[in-house]
Sequence to fold (383 residues):
Amino acid sequence: MDNKQMLMIPGPTPVPEKVLLAMAKHPMGHRSGAFSKVIAELTSGLKWLHQTQNDVLMLTVSGTGAMEAGIINFLSPGDRVLVGNNGKFGERWAKLSKAFGLAVEEITAEWGKALNPADFQAKLEADTEKTIKAVILTHSETSTGVLNDLETINRAVKAHGEALMIVDAVTSLGATSVPIDDWGLDVVASGSQKGYMIPPGLGFVAVSAKAWKAYETAKLPRFYLDLKKYKKATDEDSSPFTPPVNLMYGLQASLQMMQAEGLDNIFTRHQRHTEATRAAMKALGLPLFAPDNAASPAITAVAPVTVEAEKIRSTMNKQFDIALAGGQDHLKGKIFRIGHLGFVCDRDILSCVGALESTLIKLGHSGVTPGAGVAAAARILSQ
Fold:
């Protein structure tokens, strides 16, 4: 029998049936009055999700495209920027910034550890000439399962006064609270295939008034990703270029689902799943790659010792049709990652943990007590 595949990876994430059915509708003209109403609803819903009254713009790109837009619209060649790098995606933003001729200074931490806010504070306080134009940070580092302390780092940026706070919230938006207006974040980028519960293809960029002021003097080239074009069109309930109409139908359905659940309930659910997954791994004798006090709400990275990570992933996929993510770069083969982001329920966590228990027993992992992982997860989920 062909089983349904279960995605327990950090993206693409599972897509609800309501969203799939919405995307199956016949497309309408993207310049029609009817579609303008769809854009208006999406814009309102996105502002709700981002906890902002600022602009939230939709682009036909991946999360990386949204981040690129967030950099090229507000900075100029030679601008000094601080980039946090403690994983694959922090590393990517450093490379992206260098590609556009920015003067990049990396603040690093070992993969699996959180960035130290004090390192940012020291750099920013020492910058009496106000030459630092932006701090670029990955909030939830997907490659390692680490959640960086954006709130504390952002306070140091705000004290600096000049620098923009540019945030990769690709796997944190919709999984944990990112209160853009309360914190005064300037540029926040995310992607559709994560907490939004829709397939890949849409990127989102939230922009503050301070960032728009920086736009006026920014000199990096831009055309398709010129956010001023998107703002002008969005203000008119339109789009500057041809948008992915059916993907936006899906976003309409997913935002309606999210609003029905409520922000606090969404964030509580993700935290509960994080705690349940981590408790299960500990009960199974599997070392966690990220510490409890910096655990991402989107993904749990596990570093098995007595069983090969890739054998675990292969067996889970072949026997149970459950997809887990692997390690990246030097972590390939050393860790596996369990995604619990977006359209994931308690049953999914228990099913994944139960299948993992069976897999560990099959592969000869020492010290497995059958049912221990499920019991540990169930205790958290029943609270």
